[in-house]
Amino acid sequence: MTSADDSGTADPVGSTESVVDTSSGLSDRATTRSDTIVEAKGVDVFYGEDQALQDISMEIPEKQVTAMIGPSGCGKSTFLRCINRMNDQIDVCRVDGEIEFRGKNIYDDDVDPVVLRRRIGMVFQQPNPFPKSIYDNVAYGLKIQGKTEDMDQKVENALKGAALWDEVKDKLHTSGLDLSGGQQQRLCIARAIAVDPQVILMDEPASALDPIATAQIEDLIEELSRDFTVVIVTHNMQQAARISDKTAVFLTGGELVEFDDTNRIFENPQSQRVEDYITGKFG
Amino acid sequence: MPRNEYQTKLEDLRGDVLYMSEVVAERLRMGLDALAQKDAQLAEEVITGDGEINEMYLELEKDCINLIALQQPVAGDLRFIAASFKIITDLERIADLATNLGQYAKNAQRDVFPDVDIQRLGDVTLEMLDRAMTAYSGDRPQMCYEVAEKDDELDELCEIASEIVVRDLIEGERSNNDEDIPILMKDVSRLLLTIRDLERVGDHAVNIAARTLYMIENNDELIY
After folding, report:
1. Which residues of chain B have a CB within 8 Å of the CB of A266?
2. What is the pLDDT of residue B178?
3. d(CA A247, CA A269)
4. What's the burial of A277, exposed, middle or buried (CB within 10 Å: 0-12/13-18/19+)?
5. Residues in domain PhoU (chain B) (predicted)?
6. Which of A102, A246, B24, B183 has the fewest CB atoms found within 10 Å of its own CB?
7. CA distance A93 to B134
8. Which residues of B are less than 8 Å from A238 in CB distance?
């Protein structure tokens, strides 16, 4: 069992870096698309006495898009936050079971959540750029890590990776808050990929955006999956169908009912409960 | 149950496809009767009635497209709509073949090869169509396989019928009168086309069964 209080370690970087960071360089990454990068094994999550997730086991494949769908309160965002230990910040939250990142249990005592979150980044529902310039937003994580060499190039690469460069290259030093909602979200994605993560978690990244901005984010997610593993929580089942390779269906009670190739989930789900949910026969 | 209107539209589509199949089967029966009875008026009814089937087809095609575009169906609903979309095409083609029978009936003046039992072939095709649509109507996968098996029987019957014609031409005692030959050739051609068209009706019935099996069980075993 690992609780939120266990996150502090005597060796905050050492062994964590050595395990979690073994393949920090892109060239060190496994190239087979079907390799598992994150594996949950019997994960239970409790908020105080309430159980939010029950015995979740799943293997998230590398460099693919995995979508998590399900009704409100089914635990899909809770599970997403478990993957980079965001739930550590909630005092009453307790996580049982294991979540392995490249074979290392991220809830082991020797794992530093800060280092972990460099490897497993997060993009939230509401775009949340810092009240800084576009440039500084992207450079922020790199500066914290002391990776200031070739900063201009790194910022440009991240903005290009987030399909934002062409729109902002002439105003890099204006405030990130002056961008449109869709641009702000892509700026947040640029900020996330600037520190060279291996997994990007996205919690409803397009739900606050208009259809055009949503389409841009969806295109971007497909692009990102060439270099990164993307795990996305979405309420929009059609979005999951459009952009994901794998889909996990969580249903009420915090249960992972089905996890399979997306085309199989949407053409021929094995579970009647999943069929009823995705066809709208129950809400 | 949420999405009541959507569920009603799905049921409406199923009912409309079944109604179309009943009209198509009736036209096929009429075409066969027109052939048997040399009834030019009945034949004309089949031919002129094809426009109604075409309109029905276009209407149902539009319904399927609207359901896909507006309701974003998935899983069993998606398979049902996709199968229906394909099935109405097969039904429309069967109606075209029934129209062909009407054309043949209008031109047929005599039974040149009485040993060829066109009505039996027709009965088999009607039975296959009926079974395929019963499977579609009531989610009965076993019936889909039965339709496919029946098609083997139909193919064999059609082959035997064609052989009778060819054998009779080779071995039979026919008039050597040159004036009779063009008429005989037309009769032979019409009869062989009739056999071929009924064999094709059977193929369309198998297509319907195959799509129905996919619809019920996500099983594409019969689709080829």
Report:
1. 74-75, 78
2. 65
3. 11
4. buried
5. 20-104, 118-211
6. B183
7. 55
8. 72
Those residues whose C-beta lies under 8 Å from the C-beta of residue A243, and which sit 6 or more positions away, are A65, A67, A218, A221, A222, A232
- Cβ proximity of A263 and A245 under 8 Å: no
Q: What is the pTM of this model?
A: 0.80
ipTM: 0.73
In this complex, the residue of B1, B6, B74 whose CB is nearest that of residue A266 is B74
- Per-residue pLDDT tens for B137-168? 998 999 999 999 999 999 999 999 999 988 88
What is the average per-residue pLDDT within A222-240? 94
A contacts of B218 (beta carbons < 8 Å): 267-268
CATH topology of domain B4-217: Methane Monooxygenase Hydroxylase; Chain G, domain 1 (1.20.58)
A38: enclosing H helix or E strand: strand A36-47
User: Could you count the other beta carbons within 10 Å of the beta carbon of residue A136?
Assistant: 18
Mutation for testing the A interface, residue in B11, B74, B139, B218 having most A CBs under 10 Å: B74
- Indicate the residue of A238, A282, A283 with minimum beta-carbon distance to B72: A238
- Per-residue buried b or exposed e for B141-179, using 16+ beta carbons within 10 Å of the residue's own CB: eebbebbbebbeebeebbeebbebbeebeeeeeeeeeee
pLDDT of residue A244 exceeding 70: yes
**In angstroms, what separates the C-alpha of A175 from chain B's closest C-alpha?**
40
Judged against a pLDDT cut of 50, whether residue A29 lies above it is answered with: no
Which chain B residues have a beta carbon less than 8 Å from that of A281?
1-3, 7
Place of tokens 């009541």: B4
Q: B22 vs chain A: nearest CA distance in angstroms?
A: 29
Picking from A217, A194, A219, the residue whose alpha carbon sits closest to that of residue A204 is A217
pLDDT digits (tens, 9 = 90+) for A132-156: 999 999 999 999 988 889 999 999 9
Name the residue facing A267 among B1, B2, B75 (closest C-beta): B75
Could you please report the per-residue DSSP string of A123-179?
E-SS----SSBHHHHHHHHHHHTT--TTHHHHHHHHHHHTT-HHHHTT-TTSBGGGS
Q: Which residue matches tokens 């900020």?
A: A191
Between positions 192 and 221 of B, the ones with CB within 8 A of A are 218
- Please answer yes or no on whether A281 and B3 come within 8 Å at the CB atom: yes
Question: For residue A11, is pLDDT > 60?
Answer: no
Question: Which residues neighbour B157 within 8 Å (Cβ) at sequence distance 6 or greater?
Answer: B120, B121, B124
Say whether A279 and B1 touch across the interface (CB within 8 A): no
pLDDT surpassing 90 at residue A50: yes
Q: Tell me whether residues B74 and A267 touch, CB distance under 8 A.
A: yes
List the domains of chain A with CATH numbers.
2-278 (3.40.50.300)
> Average pLDDT for residues A208-224, to the nearest whole number?
91
